[in-house]
Amino acid sequence: MLLFTTSIKAILFLATYVTAQSTAMGKNVFAHYMVGSMTSSEAVTDVKDASNAGIDGFALNVQSTDSWSTSAISDLFDAANGSSGFKLFFSFDMTHFTNPSQFLPLIQQYHTNSAYFLQNGKPFVSTFNGGTLTFGSGTPGDGWNAAFRKPLEDMGISPFFVPDFDDWSGYPNGFISAFPVVDGAFSWESAWPEVSQGQANVSDVVDATVLHDAHSVNKVYMMALSSFQFKYLGQGQQWYRRGELNFAQRMGQILQLQPDLVEVVTWNDAGESHYVGNFWPEQIAGSNIGAYANGFDHKGWLQVLSPFIAAYKAGATQISSISPPSGAAAVGAMWYRTLLKSASCASSISGSQNADDALNFAIILPTDTSGVTINVYSNDNRIASYAGVSGLNDQSVAGLQAGGGQRVEVVDASGTTIASATGTKDVRQQSTNPVCNFNYEVVGLS
């Protein structure tokens, strides 16, 4: 079974910056990682790239204990152990497992590994879904206690359990009291607006509710950060969840709410298009994912993510406090869809009506910024200009036009272009192949 540029110089520059800016406050930022077939060298590359971006570790989405999965897990732990402090923890995908007994041996095997992430000295464990499963008990909370926590404790293992149980029917209200088995909570679905919400921006109401309830009983909250969702894998699996400014807006919400941990969704999930790092050919082999993900590099988003991580760890509460690396005039990215929403194939995508034909950017400027202008071009026509301010500047600029010449320029007071990003793909009015591709072209500043 198989699952699923920014320049190296820029990434290394940001890595040095994040390391220097991080504090001892203990806040950790992880990236959700889809475990799939891979080579040991690919594991090393992923760990190195994520670490250079300021990410503390991977939440390993485990869907199977077959050999292809356990081999990849072994390679990832070897890579993490060969790094400088990069950590891993398991996030078990409960859409694939039917009982914790299927994966408890993995926890038993790896919980003492030096690369396994510990919270309060306990092995950190998470899930994707599972909030409706009872495993023969009267309630899901009792079921997870009987089938997960108690067997581990009988082995002498006390897990720090922070699952994503937002599939529970009452979520988020009353979740913490209904699940005394947990040490905290993670909310996957709150990372984006629902398709049914129309052209709404992402909300942090669920996050604020669960965070408050968790903190009231000395438990933790891990908050999701993501760009957007696009999936195109056939009937019932074709949707778009808004990403025009979702990434930047979510960063602002995280800084305001100050969750205990952050999980970036995702490092490599090409199937849902919200990857910020590498995805490897063998991870998506045998699927149609490559038809809409290959050639769409999202690493430009790391230019925005790394300074955000530094600001979060330093206790910043506003996006104006996010700063570029010392000496950098500007860092950031622009992104746009390469197909207009009026394309006739768009009706095949649930949520396509919520998209905007827009060129989007997130640009981080220094604290002493003055006289800087951000110019936005589509089809080589300037469609907007904005006065740059210190911190994170983000805009979704309507007026994306078919053709080439999609770019953003950062110009100083003297009229000199100090940074720019130019798209490598033209925008089309209609799709020229069977895929109605709503994936984003993402380009980092240079």
From TrEMBL:
InterPro entries: Glyco_hydro_71
Domain of life: Eukaryota
Signal sequence, renumbered to the chain: 1-20
Xref: CDD domains: GH71
Keywords on record: Signal
Record's keyword annotation contains Signal: yes
The protein, known as: Glucan endo-1,3-alpha-glucosidase agn1, putative
Organism of origin: Byssochlamys spectabilis (strain No. 5 / NBRC 109023) (Paecilomyces variotii)
